[in-house]
């Protein structure tokens, strides 16, 4: 038994009850089971205020009656992947999109979900804690209870390990009271964040069956949703009745595709980091003696770094996607930075702010190759001490060139998805070190005339993850929680809850659900004479180097570098001006894929209704001719040859 | 010439005009002098909103008529120091306190300041940028102009170096417009922050004389005010007409004494840091796998660490004052931390948050001794490479024991006040390293049974200094700027602007001025058979280990450690609930020294008015008897023997 949020948790997997307290915050209390269920934790004044905030809901989720409209069956973004995905997910791929509409919506095929039997739902946190996660639970809880007060929501305590061990906490309004609109994942905690091996999948299935769950909701990012899709498929195959639903919650912002515009947590993380970057910019300009190298959390993709650039206007940002596309070596990046420092020194500027995404280290070709060798040795069970001697001559030379702290960090065991431990590798210190060495060399040689280069390094990540969620993330997460309920009420399995048109006010948001398999792609490895195919999976969306957000940076690169256009978005506000601000990349990008899919359907319906049997021959001819050329163009555009890019 | 805030600065010390731009933020502009004076910089939405905020003023500063009341002449806090201070500051010590009152105040001896001739005032930033600094300039500017529109305010560009070089920027409302209520010192910048050598003092004096300044306002902390007092004394001696006024602005919060309750910037810094610490606490509790070691800015004293503890309730804080008082060695601290980690592990807790003030390294006796040796070698001109071999055997043994990064940092050149470069010495990494080593040893030996200890280190400083100032700091700084004007209008020299009763609403604030020399103490060094006396100076106020703020922490130490009482104050709010929050240590401590001094005067006056010639013999006898015993007790209490402590 473990106490969480003041409540007792029965550990079903252990015969002996375990006592563990997490909420004994200075209060004396008995440790017997259930004696102080739901004791609230101490909140600060602002936390209390926030706990009273009632998130807005889009119109379709207000009230208890919701209509569901099924769209067309989905296909893979890249037709070439479709076959592999259908093979891997015979039961759960190719399912239709679902749209949730108001009860009053005048849509002929949309049905009102009439039946609301009492259901039992489990929910689990997977992956990096992202601000807003608690609100998904709250939203789901409210939706469940308002449709049938006899329904029950169980939180799995301790993430996926809690799921396997069947450690549950029944969610009540009391327990939620001090977690509403609050950051972190501490209501339930999280652990391994993986449901992948057959042992793990079976443990999850047994838990769902034993607890007789109607639905299992997985709160997580890219890898967790690949796991969720696999789980959904296995459940159908094994005739397990539990439906699996995913919710896009990840601070990395990299679970982004045709159906998902942004992830819960991304907005807050970028705002908190941009505030700090803005502060550092002001600091740099005040003392004019330091270059700040700031590494930002965000895993492989550079969405966080890009959004923070848009919000705070630092002097430079090195996007992993740009480095990978341009195949820049570590020396190219160093040289580019040194030239920038030199150009600024010529204008008598000895300060600056440079952003670096944590994924950069994997985007630099030679470092990536070195990491691959090291991870290979890890898989072979080679001990860390013996690794340096077993590297290839080329990798060994690079390894020896790197400063000691970097060597130690590169040797760390890779994460469960085989990527490097990005949060532990101080790429910003490596770059600052290389730039310093090079500037000192130039100074000595006389090719640089100016003051000594001074760098200060930062990693912004852990200090933002636990932040109070912004209003946007509070609303978005709460509404997604509601959508989860309707997905389950509609009996869908292997779906992700989606809300689109997010850049507009909440009353314009569109709620729906998309099969997780429709977001998958297949990686191909081209070898000499053969092509290997990876398992279908959701892959992190990379920053679109042709998109509007990056275009803004590209067009202003030299002003950003030279003119100190620093901008401080300030601390996240909950009332008054600024409280409703949304992330810039969300607003500049013209997404609303789901809205367009619906609009297309309307056009097609219109054609059908105009060109009915009985219409004139001319109208029919014109329709045929027009539709013929439209289909030709679309068929050409959708052919594999034009589909090499990552989605979005 | 240099462009600042969109303005042109004439560099009076150089015959050749220097062109330097700082504001060319993507705008095309001519670089000829004065052509784009006051071009505003780009602000974010929230920055813009803040720039429109009009700070509140206490009643005595509203309107243009102010009464000044002079109190008693001041003495040193420790009578033993009085002689040395009077000797060092014959002209500027022993001056009376001044209180600024409303024109309508019914105080017999208070005079209305009637004359407001046009004056010329210079202002300069010294020391670490602290949020609110810009508002001192704005407040002073408004007060100057509202009393005589012909008066002029000059900002020195580039801190003390700008002062020596007479680089001035005339402050206008246009120039201020995008700096009102904004963080940083970037309107004017700052550099060396020292006016101490006779060369520097003379350069400052020539600048004041050449610019024909009525007053010079120094914005800074502890050391800058010692410099300011010296400057004031030298000016009188040299018959320079310029009056010197200081304003207590330092994020460290260590310029604190009978007259100064808190410093501009401290409130904001603690709030921003507490937000981040609160986030990290939430993070720790969500993933339950890391110990976070967080070092906080604040120089020698631990005020910032203490206030952040009160606001965010981490598991542990190691105050430098406590370590110094208890003479804890580095191994004692390590052991204490390891025992804490072990005790938590026994309760199945593998996470935690530990705060460390940056000054800690100088409070640990053996590290301080090592630093002293190293600084001695620096003074002898020994090169860094040769230092390790020239250390005493004892110091050398300690040095060799330390990890390489620490050795490198300890060898850094000391700062201008001979203290170590505290911001560059990663004490948090040292402690995390030592704790990890010890926990691994215990694990191997079997004396610790539990999961591996994992630490993540942070230094919170640079990311908070440039922050938008809190409402409190905006108001406090703006009002202090006004007070500066009235000090100059009253013709005072060597004074610090003060506002007391700060824990109450602005309409209860009391404005005044205190001679800087009254805040000085003299350090004594006891050697065998002789006592050396240091120069009188303002010394950083240390945390009062007997005070109410520390008492709160002491009483809850074990709950904080074991029960995870984490509290997240959230981001600084400017509107709605929480916007008016003040720092906790300001509110729990019962200060208002200035208010009490005034109250005492009222009692004395009352006695005098009751016991007038003509009163009855009995009344006179009673008065004599009562006053006799009061004076006896006070004389005893004020004798040197009872005055060993640091002030406050």
Automatic annotation (TrEMBL), chains A, B:
Its main location: cytoplasm. One of its GO terms (cellular component) is cytosol. The keyword Metal-binding applies. It catalyses: beta-D-fructose 6-phosphate + diphosphate = beta-D-fructose 1,6-bisphosphate + phosphate + H(+). Residues 15-41 are annotated as: Disordered. InterPro entries: ATP_PFK, PfpB_PPi_PFK, Phosphofructokinase_dom, PKF_sf. Pathway: Carbohydrate degradation; glycolysis; D-glyceraldehyde 3-phosphate and glycerone phosphate from D-glucose: step 3/4. Keywords: Allosteric enzyme, Cytoplasm, Glycolysis, Kinase, Magnesium, Metal-binding, Transferase. It is found in: Cytoplasm. Gene3D superfamilies: 3.40.50.450, Phosphofructokinase domain (3.40.50.460), Phosphofructokinase, domain 3 (1.10.10.480). GO terms for molecular function: 6-phosphofructokinase activity; ATP binding; diphosphate-fructose-6-phosphate 1-phosphotransferase activity; metal ion binding. SUPFAM superfamilies: Phosphofructokinase. Residues 120-486 form the Phosphofructokinase domain. One of its GO terms (biological process) is fructose 6-phosphate metabolic process. Allosterically activated by fructose 2,6-bisphosphate. It comes from the Eukaryota. Its cofactor is Mg(2+). HAMAP family: Phosphofructokinase_II_Long. Tetramer of two alpha (regulatory) and two beta (catalytic) chains. Belongs to the phosphofructokinase type A (PFKA) family. PPi-dependent PFK group II subfamily. Clade 'Long' sub-subfamily. Regulatory subunit of pyrophosphate--fructose 6-phosphate 1-phosphotransferase. This is Pyrophosphate--fructose 6-phosphate 1-phosphotransferase subunit alpha. It comes from Ensete ventricosum. The gene is PFP-ALPHA.
